Amino acid sequence: MNENRAENFSQATSTNSSVSTKTSNATNTFTKATRTQGYLVPGATRFYVKVPLERIGVLIGKKGDVLKQLMQETQTRVTVDEVNGTVIIEPQGPQTRAIDLMKARDIVTAIGYGFSPERAFRLLDEDQVLIVIDLKQYVGPSENHLTRIKGRIIGEEGRARKNLEEMTGTHISIYDDYVAIIGDYESANAARDAILMLIEGKQHSTVYRHLEREMRRIRRTRIVSLWEKEPPQK
C-alpha cells in the first residue's frame, strides 16, 4: 500500500477499543434521527469505508460470493467502487439493525486490513471486536523502524504472531503499517497490550510471561462470572 493509500484507508475498530488504537473514521451519517428502536431508515444511514485496491477482489470473492454472504448475514446493501476502493454500506430495509450495519462495516474493514473473509466473518459473533494499531503512531514514518517492529511482531517464520494468537485465541494480521486483531473484547485487548510491549522493545519471553498471567486472570474472571450467574440449587 502506498503512502497516500495508507492515509486514506479507513481505520475502523471496535467501539470498545482503547484510546491507544486507531478508532473508526469511516464516514457515516449514523444519527439518532435515522434509528427506530435499534432499526435503521433505508437511505438515511450509510457507512463509507476506503479499502486498498489490492483487497477489493478478496472482499468481492469468487463470483461475488463473499459480498453476497456479507449482505445476507447482515441484511445490508454493499456497493463497491472497484476504481477508487470506496465501499458504501447501507441497510437493506427497515428490518436491518444498527448493530448489523456496524458489523458489516467492521467485516469490510477487517478484510481491508488483510484478514481472510473466513476470519473477518468471525466479527458476526456478538462478543467479537476489531482492534487496529497504527504502527506509525509509535515508531514514526521511518521504513527501517517499521520493518524492524513488524519483524518483532511476526517473529522468525511467524512464530511470535502464532504464539500471540494461540495464547489469546485471537487472529492477528500485519498489513502494510498496521496490526489488526480480531477476538473477544478481553482477549483482543490482551493481545494488543502484548503487541505494544513488543513495540516498546520488551523481550519476547517477558511479553509471553505477562500474557500468560493476563490470560489466567481473564479465565478466572470468566469462571467466577459464570458461577455467579448459575441459579441457586433448591
From TrEMBL:
Gene3D superfamilies per record: K Homology domain, type 1
Renumbered to this chain, the Low complexity biased-composition regions fall at 13-28
Q: Name one GO molecular function term.
A: RNA binding
Q: Which UniProt keywords apply?
A: RNA-binding
- Tell me the ranges covered by the K Homology domain, including all copies: 43-109, 127-200
Where is region (Disordered) located? 1-28
Q: Pfam families recorded for this chain?
A: KH_1, KH_PNO1_2nd
Q: Give the InterPro entries listed for this entry.
A: KH_dom, KH_dom_type_1, KH_dom_type_1_sf, KH_domain_protein_archaea, KH_PNO1_2nd
The family database entries (NCBIfam families) matched by this protein are listed as:
arCOG04150 (TIGR03665), PRK13763.1-3 (NF010328)
What this protein is called in its record is RNA-processing protein
Gene source species: Ignisphaera aggregans
Instruction: Recall the taxonomic lineage recorded for the source organism.
Output: Archaea, Thermoproteota, Thermoprotei, Desulfurococcales, Desulfurococcaceae
